Structures are given as structure tokens and as C-alpha cells.
Amino acid sequence: MICHDCQSALPDLLLDPASPSNTAARAHLDTCAACREEFNSLEATFALLDLWQAPEPTPYFDQKLGVRLREEQATAPAGWFERMRARLLFNTGRQFRPALAGALALVLLVGGGTFAGISGAHSGKVEASATVEDLQILDKNDQALQTMDQLLQDDNPTEDANTPPSS
After folding, report:
1. Contact 38, 25 (CB under 8 A)
2. pLDDT value for 130
3. How far apart are CA 28 and CA 22, in angstroms?
4. Cα(33)–Cα(10) distance, integer angstroms
5. What is the rounded distance in angstroms from the CA atom of residue 152 to the CA atom of residue 145?
6. DSSP letter, residue 156
7. Residue-range definition of the domain harbouring residue 35
8. CA dist list (Å): 82 to 50, 88, 95
9. Interhelix angle for 23-31 vs 3-15, to 10°?
10. How does pLDDT run across 18-50, given as a tens digit for each residue?
11. Which InterPro entries does the entry mention (predicted)?
12. Which among 63, 10, 61, 68 has a CA at the least distance from the CA of 37?
């Protein structure tokens, strides 16, 4: 048996020394001085606990307790703020666990969405690659050149169509 296993079996050995499951622990104590010292220390602690006696209550304890209970029942209930303060200070927090879990989930969703770039504040514009942008610019230039050609053709009409026939 290793020392760790023996030390975990020491309380059982102290409480029920005659148990057959403690034979390995007793055999280890005979061979290991460190575990034997730990066992002796626990034995001394248990002996001190056996000697300790709880103090006796005073003869008027029950009457004093009854008076205190009646005084507390007669006092006006604390205000809303005082009750919430007492609940926060002296409570286990079990009723707040669902609210805290929901708040934590919300924080994780918002933080994770922001981190991943998934937010509701998109500009609506999808960025195109440089090739697509270049093609769009060339298309606009081509349209502008066609418009300029049409304007130039309208400014210089052919003289044959506008001249009156000569007689």
C-alpha cells in the first residue's frame, strides 16, 4: 500500500479499527514511520475532541429566546431596499443563477458576434475584388466614350443633308 492510500484510510482506521478492510492500512502503519506519525496525530486530535464538552446553556436561555422571538415578530417588516440588501448579503444566490446564466449567455453572444464580425451594423455594400472594380471602371469609360462620339457626331452634321439643292 502506498502512503497516499494509507492516509485516506486513516479516518476509517480510527473510527472502526476492527474492520477487516483496514488490515492493509494497519500493515502499512507498521512499516511506514511517516504514516504512523500521522495516525498518532489524528489519534491525539480525536482524544481531545472526546474530552471536550459543550457548555451548558444558562437557566433562563429558553425564556430569553422566547422574548427575542416575540420582539422580532412585533417589529415592522423591513423595507424593500433592506430586504434586497439582506437577500444579497446573506443568501446562497440560487434564485439569481438563472438570471446570471442568461446575462452571461447574452454577453457571450454579443461578444462572440462582434469578434466574428457578425454584427447588425453592416453598411450594406459588398466589397468586390480589384478585377471586378477594374472591369466596372472600363465599362463606365466605354459608355462615356460612346456618349462623346454621339455628341461629336451631332455637332458636325454632314453638309450634304442640310444644304438646299442648287438650281
Report:
1. no
2. 85
3. 10
4. 14
5. 11
6. S
7. 1-78
8. 43, 10, 18
9. 120
10. 888 888 888 888 899 999 999 999 999 999 988
11. Anti_sigma_zinc_sf
12. 10
The model's pLDDT over 74-110, given as tens digits with 9 standing for 90+, comes to 887 778 888 888 777 777 767 777 888 899 999 988 8
Task: Give the whole-angstrom CA distance, residue 6 versus residue 39.
Answer: 10
Q: Cα–Cα distance between 92 and 98 in angstroms, integer? A: 13
3-state secondary structure 59-99: CCHHHHHHHHHHHHHHCCCCCHHHHHHHHHHCCCCHHHHHH
Residue 9 neighbours by CB distance under 10 Å: 20
Please state the domain count of the chain: 1
Residue 68 contacts residue 41 (beta carbons within 8 Å): no
Q: Is 30 within the bounds of a domain?
A: yes
Q: Identify whether the C-beta of residue 47 lies closer than 8 Å to the C-beta of residue 39.
A: no
Asked, for residue 57, whether it belongs to a domain, the answer is yes
| Identity of residue 6 | C
Helix, strand, coil percentages, rounded to 5, for the chain: 70, 0, 30
What values do phi and psi take at 93, rounded to 5? 85, 15
Hey, what's the cell of 142?
466605354
